[in-house]
Amino acid sequence: MTQHRSAPVDLPAAWPVGVPRDVEIPDEPLTATLDRAVREHPDRVAVDFLGATTTYRELGERVELGARVLHGLGVRAGDRVALVLPNCTSHLVAFWSVLRLGAVVVEHNPTYTADELAHQLADSGATVALVWEQAVPRVLEAQDRTALRRVVAVDLSADLPRAARAALRLPLPAARRTRDAMRGPVPAGVPHWHRLLRTVPAWIAAEGHDEPRPEDVALLQYTGGTTGTPKAAVLTHRNLLANTIQGQAWTQAENGTEVVYGVLPFFHAFGLTLCLTYSVRIAATLVVLPNFDPARVLAAQRRRPGTFLPAVPPMLDRLAAAAEESGADLTSFRYAISGAMALPRETAERWERVTGGLVVEGYGMTETSPVALGSPLTQDRRPGALGLPFPSTRIRVVDQEDPTREVAPGEQGELLISGPQVFAGYWQRPEETAEQLLPDGWLRTGDVVRVDDDGMVVLVDRMKEMIVTGGFKVYPSQVEDHLRGMPGILDVAVVGEPAGDLGERVVAAIVLDGDVPGVDLAAVRAWCETRLARYALPRRLVVLPDLPRSQVGKVLRRVVRDNLHTHA
Q1: In what residue span(s) does the AMP-dependent synthetase/ligase domain sit (predicted)?
Q2: Which residues contact 333 (CB under 8 A, 6 or more apart)?
Q3: Which one is predicted more confidently, 252 or 344?
């Protein structure tokens, strides 16, 4: 066993009782976490997907089958395997199967356009992709621009309970709607994941494979970082393992007792760690939903009451409202962790009133696997604060222009983070890695904070210009690049404006090229919708005579944003 420790420091005044300041990180790969859960809790339900249950023993068996299938498809240690999947049991099986071979998982949003997928698939060099049926046509459209050799279709409905699968064949409107939402046309010649699992030859397992090492790359997780250019954060087995151990220390969860609700998308760093890997670390039952639907969550809650909910604020608010309206019982949820955007005090109070449990904020980045700070899971929590550094995590607050100079206590500055969960760099981007990671291993977050007297970190402002809407990140430059090609638009600046529980909404400030008819919000959204994810589409359009610029000609987005209220 090896131990990752930093120099001892005094505990902050708000430090929760029972939480260690430092944790031991075993010298083992992330897959050892699953092996331990299978060995110690074989009969506990590991996954509940819309009522279809899988025990830890069964999950381990399916992962071994999945590894054999992937090996038969030519996947070897170090190869990248793309997962283009919504939340489902197959997503978990595929994730752990890839890691079992020492290969690298590359997560993708299954709602991305063909162009967005092509960029990420080509950048990672993935050779095999496991793809939700509805996304198969888009991946095939992108395939010629990538290194993909094999595309395997995943039927979401195959993970349903037997009775639910049979009901989908009924000639009823409701069955047809559900079937259409889960399935999609798959061209001839594209193999199906579940069929491969049923027919994998036994001899494939005889070839064996080496156990991955802690320092091996486990995951490429795409993020815009501070620039908006999508790039893959390189996360090792040790990075991901460390964050699950830190999370367990923070929550003080007992193995084999929790029921975690997986409503966050697994393709997002927040959902991947807080649901997919953390739940296995604590041998929890993970209740998986393909997307967030309050009615569906309440139905699952009646069947299998949850204890822990990782979520973004709009989810918490909508779920609490639905429970209040229907009289549903959410009191089994002892705690919730809110992330990706600021938690409004009203949302926190509503959730705690409905559940009787606690909700606290966490802070992190894809580059920190992702959690780095959290508010105490005690009555000392403070809504609006980012919280305290996780165990074995250290922070510094430095001058925004000179990261080598720490600011005085209580003053604001850029947040730097160090810890075992800090990523190894950006995939094949040494220059951008050097900009983000200082030579001594400290990560520049690009966020401006202050540290209060009790040690709590409070966000002051963002150095980044990205927009956070509904927990998703939107990078202005990407939206602007698409809009500049639209007939009638001479120039554009995309910014965010406050939007209540959504965090921010995307606003496009445009300069028209003469008196061109038909350039309105509907036309702008229609132009963008084949190129951008739905959450990135502009929600408001403002026409300006010109855009404010710096002396070197750079559009001043901050000025645009500050002036938006005059055009409301």
Answers
A1: 34-427
A2: 306, 307, 308, 309, 355, 357
A3: 252
